[in-house]
Amino acid sequence: MRLEISCQDRLGITQDVLDILVTKEIDLRGIEIDPAGKIFLNFPNIEFADFQHLMPQIRRIDGIDDVKTTLFMPGEREKNQLSAILRTLPDPVFSIDAKGNILLCNEAVSAGLEMPSSEIVGTDISEAVKGFNFTKWMDGKSPGPQSSKVKFIQQDYLADMLPITVPDGEKNMIMAGAVVILKSEMRLGQQFTAFHQSPTDSFDRFITQSPFMKRVVHEAKRIADLDAPILIFGETGTGKEMIARACHQSSRRSEGAFLALNCASLPDSVAETELFGYAAGAFNQPNAKVGLLEQAKGGTLLLDEIADMSSQLQAKLLRVLEDGEFRRVGDSEPVKVDVRFICTTCRDLGQLVEEGRFRKELYYRLNVLSLVMPSLKDRRQDIVPLAESFIVQHSTKLGRRPAKLSKSCVDFLQQYPWPGNVRQLQNALYRALSLLDGKEITKEDIQLPSCAPSVTYIDENFDGTLDEEVKKFEKDLLKRLYPSYPSTRQLAKKLGLSHTAIANKLREYGINKATVKL
């Protein structure tokens, strides 16, 4: 159990808190005091009955503003973050004391020396890293950061030495040790190459100030280089094709083609020949046609709005996924497939499967890796940065100086519900800039259809009671928020309800980690 106590700056307030713990005979594992006006307490074990009495007593202390539980002590959080950073760094990293003894090392060091970290810690770094006198460097008058060529596991490395100092009085600093980071020649070459590479159209283009979008891009980066199909859900205009293209460009297939077929815009017969091609003589055509499956060999094929694909074409696509080959229309010879599939949809495929309008087997074949693109109204922190980015892009095309957004325009953009999502925002700004005479875009320059929130959720001719419709809205809201607030405590805090109330609602609507993609 850990408590976070918000309090005023009063002499003796911490002692008053500790006196209560002594009275209750509560064992205190740790205490941390934040200069910003917070006291953190860590109890190894505390009975629920003691906890119930403890909280009100602490709240009654003069100068205490709030008391609540917290998951981590500040020191624990910082230690865990540093440990995670150190553990995942690909380069060997040592932390040493002022005498050169190793205090900490990461997995790259253990793997290189083929020894567990427990055997490495406590030894002199000069036993592992040769060619540099660490003790002499730290004993210097005022050692600064230094780089030197060294030997590690009989190979050449570049060592970056970063001194660690602690204050001793107002001006003096004491040498406490150093962090040593080793980079191999291969790693230096990779970094040099990356530095000189031209920027690519990948995930760097995404604006991700909102939690929803940060999560999506983080997930996309992790699955981009896997070869399994990706299914991308999202409303029209949310950027499904853009993130599909970014996944392709960040994959090992980036040198191959990225081709797309819009399943909603083509008749079934045309879509079939576009996808599979046809043999010479088919449809009375003298020459064969190469389909997208062959054109995208070694690359990625995007099937846009897969939910609109006919059942006949769904069956043929399923066979491609199962057998790894297909036949051109009018041809009996099989053709091997070497394509990574990415599919998008703005519809609920799971619901379509239940209704028998989409093949269950195909759904499970495609839904191996999935992403959910948030609507623009669910990523409001991104609206203004997106708007400013579009203004720069459009201004360049129009050959004019980028205009600024007035405060009234910013407020309007953030409040508008954006049924057309990012594409609607982009088009609205292009129109405004095309007709703009001044240097500032006002609310009046943005021409958008009226969207009253009061009529967007429930049709005026709905069937059912008010309670049923409220429950539908409540369930939809909780499903939307759950991926970003996946614990009942986080969700309760977001919605201003009690932990128990949220837990009951999630249970009632069947919302949990198994039913909602995080």
From TrEMBL:
Sigma-54 factor interaction domain mapped to chain residues: 206-434
Biological process (GO), any one: regulation of DNA-templated transcription
Segments forming domain PAS: 78-122
Residue ranges annotated for the ACT domain, each copy included: 2-75
Chief localization: cytoplasm
Recorded GO MF terms: ATP binding; DNA binding
Protein name per Swiss-Prot or TrEMBL: HTH-type transcriptional regulatory protein TyrR
Ranges in a coiled coil: none
GO-annotated cellular components: cytoplasm
Compartments where located: Cytoplasm
NCBIfam families reported in the protein's UniProt record: HTH_TypR, PRK10820.1
InterPro entries: AAA+_ATPase, AAA_lid_NorR, ACT-like_dom_sf, ACT_dom, Homeodomain-like_sf, HTH_TyrR, P-loop_NTPase, PAS
Annotated keywords: Activator, Aromatic hydrocarbons catabolism, ATP-binding, Cytoplasm, DNA-binding, Nucleotide-binding, Repressor, Transcription, Transcription regulation
SMART domains: AAA, PAS
